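Weekly modeling sync, notes
Attendees: AB, CL, MP (scribe)

Item 1: holo prediction request
CL wants a bound-state model with (2R)-2-hydroxypentanedioic acid before deciding which constructs to order. AB pointed out that an apo prediction alone won't tell us much about the pocket. Agreed to run with the ligand included and paste results into these notes for async review.

Input as submitted:
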Amino acid sequence: LTSTMYPDVVRDERFGKITAEDIEYFKSVLAPGSVLTAAEEDLSGYNVDAMRKYHGQSQLVLKPRSTEEVSLIMKRCNARKLAVVPQGGNTGLVGGSVPVFDEIVISMSLMNKIRSFDEVSGILVADAGCILETTDQYLADRGYIFPLDLGAKGSCHIGGNVATNAGGLRLLRYGSLHGTVLGIEAVMPDGTIFDSLGKLRKDNTGYDIKQLFIGSEGTLGVITGISIFCPRRSKVVNVAFFGLESYENVQQAFVRAKGELSEILSAFEFMDTASQEQVARFSELRRPLDEPHNFYVLVETSGSNRVHDEEKLQTYLEGLMESDIIADGVLAQDETQVKNLWTWREGIPESLGKSGGVYKYDVSIPLEELYQLVEDTRVRIQEFGHDIGTEGSNVVNVVGYGHLGDGNLHLNVAVKHYDKEIEYILEPWVYEWIEKRHGSVSAEHGLGFAKKPYLKYSKDQSVIELMRQVKKVYDPNGIMNPYKYI
Ligand code: FAD
Ligand code: 2HG
Ligand code: ZN
C-alpha cells in the first residue's frame, strides 16, 4: 500500500491488518460506543489534521475510558503488531496526530476526569484527555491557573500538550512542561502501565524517565494521566499593546520589560504588520492602534496589587515613548479589552488558515536574527517569481510573529492552496538557514510527520542515534505512531 498523499512513503508490511476478530476483541473489552469502524461511522475527522494538510486512512478508532482499557488495547496491538496513533484534541501542527496509512487511532477524548487537586500545594492530577480550557476553568474556580495557555485551548488535551511539550503564551512566566509536570502515567506499547504519577516537586532518585514522555509525540507510549504543579492565579492581569517601527525597537522593548516589569511580566509576544492585516481581514473588532506600524508587541503583566502593577506598566510605557522605542500604545481598561487585545495575537493562526493553505515554520533562533528569517523568506519567494501579499492569483503572504520572550518565531507562509512548488522553494532552505544559526527546527510544535527529514538540521547524529536506541527499547515492534520522526 502506498499513499496518494505521500507517494514516497510505503506501508510497513511488518504491521498486521485489522481483522474481524480484532474488532470483536476490542468490542468485548471496551464499553459500548468506544469502537468506531469506518464501515459504520464517518472517521474523516480523526484522519485529517487541524490544517487539513495531512490525511490518513484509519479504519478504526478506539476510545478508551480508563488506563486499564488502554492497557488491554495495547496488549492486543502489540501481540498482533497493529500500529497505533494516540490522538488528543487533534490540534497539532506537524501532522503527528493523524495516521499515515491504516494505523488505529486511540482517541483519548473519553478519559477526561480530574483525579485530584490539592489546594495547598497546587498539584493537579488529571486524565490525559482533559481539555486544557476546561481544566484551567476548574483551577480558576479554586484560585489557581494551569501553567500553560495556547490558542487551541478549547480543543487540545493536557495529555496532548505534554506529548508535544507545548510552549504557548506564558512559558516566559511559568516555564516549560519539563519543569512543571511532576508525574506521568502511561501505557507502554506492550500494555505495561508505567506508573510515575508522583506529586513531588523534588525527587532525585536516579534517571527521570518520565521526562522522555514529555515531547515524545506518541512514539513511546500512550500518556493516560499527568500530575502538574499549578501556580496561584494572579489577581491582577494587565495588557498593553504597542506599535514599533523596527525589529531593533522590539528587542529594546523586551530588554526594558525584563528589567522594569520583572516579576510581574507574564507574556511578551510580537507580531509583524502582515500578521495584523491578516487578522483585520477577518475580524469585526476595531484595530487597537489607529495608525499602521511595522511591528506590534503585546505585553501582559500578572500580579497581585493593582495600583503597583498599573503604575509599573504605565511607567514602562512612558519610558518607551520618551526613548522613541515605541510609536504608539494602548492599555486595556477592563477584562473585555484584555481579551480583545489578545485576539490580535491569538487570532493570527486561525485567520491565516482562512487563506487556503499555510506552510508553518516554528523555529528557535538567537533573538538578534529572529526577524531576519521572515525578511529573507520574502526575498526568496520573490526571486522565484511570486508576489508578496494577499490579493491576486500569484501571491504568497509571508508573516512573522511569535513568543519573542522565548526566542521562538512563527514564520507562516500562506498560500491559496498547498502547492509543491512553494514547498520546494521553502524546504529545506528554511532549515538550512536555521542550521547555520544553530537554531532549532522545532521550537514548540514538535516534529511529527512534517519535520521528519529535518531533525538532522538541529540534532547531532550521535543524539539521533541515541534517540533511535531509546525508541527500540520502549517500542521494539515500532507500533507507536510509525512513519513519524523516529
Ligand atoms: P494532538 O494534536 O491530538 O496530538 C499531538 C501529538 O501528541 C501527536 O503526535 C499525538 O500522537 C500525540 N499525543 C496526543 N495525545 C497523546 C497521549 N495522550 N499520549 C501520547 N501521545 C499523545 N503549540 C504550542 O506549543 N504553543 C502554542 O502557542 C500553540 N498554539 C496553537 C494554536 C492553535 C490555533 C493550534 C491549532 C495549535 C497550536 N499549538 C501550539 C500546537 C500544539 O501542539 C497543540 O495545540 C497541542 O499541544 C496539541 O494537543 P492535542 O491534544 O491537540 O494533541
Ligand atoms: C501560536 O503561537 C501557535 O499561535 C501557532 O504556536 C503558531 O500557527 C502557528 O504557526
Ligand atoms: Zn506558538
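Recorded for review: The chain is about 30% helix and 20% strand.
Action items: CL to compare against the apo run; MP to circulate these notes.
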